[in-house]
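Researcher: Please translate sequence to structure tokens.
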Amino acid sequence: MRLLHWLAPVLSIVLISHAYSTVHAQGFPPAEMQSRMIQPVSYNPASFPGYPQNAQAMPAPVQPGFFQAAAGSNGYPTPPGVPMNAGPESPLSAFPRISPFEHQFQQHRVDSNGLWSYRASNNGKRHFLSMEALFARYQNPGGALIGNVGTQSYLGMVEDELIDATDEDYYDQFSENTGLPYFDQKYFNNVPKLNAPGFRLRWGWYNDDESGFEFTGWWISQADSDWSAIEQSTHKPNPANQAIMDILLSPPNFIDPAGTGVVSSIPGVTTAQVNEVLQNELMNLGGLPLDDGTVDGVTVPYDLDFRVKSVSQAWGTNATWLSTPIVDKKALKVRGLAGARYMQVREGFSFVGRDSGLLYSDATNIAGIRPDLKLFSLPTGTDENQDGIVDNAGVVEDDSTGGGTTGTSTAFFVAPVDPVTGQPVQPYTTWVNNTVDTHLAGPEVGFQFDLGGDKFKIWGQTKVGIMANQEKIKLNGNNVGMGIRADPDDIDRPKALIDATPGNPNPNAFSDSQSHTHVSPMFEQSIFMEMAIFDKVPVLKRMKMLEEAKLKVGYTYIVAGEIARPYDSIRWQGMPTRGLFPSIDVERESWSVGTWSVGLDWLY
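Model: Translation complete:
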């Protein structure tokens, strides 16, 4: 015998027993008179034809809130039904008084073709946040001359002395071949590129009408760029000679002040060894052109060191209002921008030149020292006289006869002596620092374009502004002058630097400062690309913080005009004995910084 499951027949019996029951999912519609809704009807059978006239009148019409079913084709209307919204089903009314589809924002407008367009949104305010790493390059100092423009070169200054010490053909090899420098004047374009990292934060929101507001802040670290003339010199220092050079460069001067070319004794070191060390360690590096009050000026030679350092740093912030789109296409939006900006720029440079204070020449070809002359071999980078020293100082290497040993191995080194004090010129260091601190603040306007959709978008901003520029310039330094001159009574070549005393150890030091306020124009152009790619990367798509993030890459270029640059804002004067010191001479030009960026952008 086979038994059926008991649940099936039980459920079937329950369903059959309720086959003729009326089941209400919810209450009846409201009784108020509303368009397109079922209205209650009166129940009075006496009003129907054929009803007995003497029958008792029926009750009054049903009250509002009761549902009256319609009469069938055969028979009278049924009695009033149950009150609407009675029972547990009442909250499920299909007739809410306020539509759930009402929009918080609606916009109606006429397009350019004359047709009405409509846009509605329940999104509310949408915020955005981006964090980016910056890779910046500041504008280089450019090709400005390090020193006074219009001053004669060192080669032109010692032309007669150099020809007397050698011959005119030797002079012509320097003057006609620019590849053979002779304490040449240098330019700031030798300074390497000014690169630095930084970061940028951007936060704001878009309203339902596509207008918005944004705050941006960025900071770029300080870029330090150094250049030394030793890097380009064919004559390099020898570390094995540094112990002797440290003694020679420390007071008292070990070069015989009598002008005989004989080096004073150093314990354990012969005169020949000292002579060889000086030939090797003194270098043909560079010259600093100065206005010393004469018609042609002077170019100061430096044979131990010639270095330039450039420094730049910038940061800024701005607040910008974004208008509703001026152009609003499916994949293109253009908005107007208006806001305010603050930006700070710090620039500076320093120059360091070290000189031995010596004059020197070839002892074979010269009977005495020549004024201002530091004789060097042609900077060919080869050892023509095969003495183990490349491009000797004080010796003319010459292989014109083919023998390779026509030059002498003995040089003549002299420290000029002050005839009044009897003190020889000591090794000295010239240094100059100039810094400019610029504050820019003011309004800006522009536009923003957005091209693309949610998954991929290219957008950018163009801004122009008029900034109030408040700048402060500070200049200081020491020993700027022709330090190899010692005679204060010499008419043609007077002493330039003041001797230090215990009461005034830095008589040649100077400082100057100025502050100015003026107006500077500003321009910024940026372009970015945003891509929703993290949901395609196997590991990154599981990270919660990257669910709504997009990859953002871009480039921003900022340029400001009428900026005082520290490289050009110096009057290069140098004659302390006559009261001539470097001072500030403001020169303004453009400043710029370009930054590549990569980061993340969220819209929430």
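Researcher: Any highlights?
Model: The chain has six helices and 19 strands.
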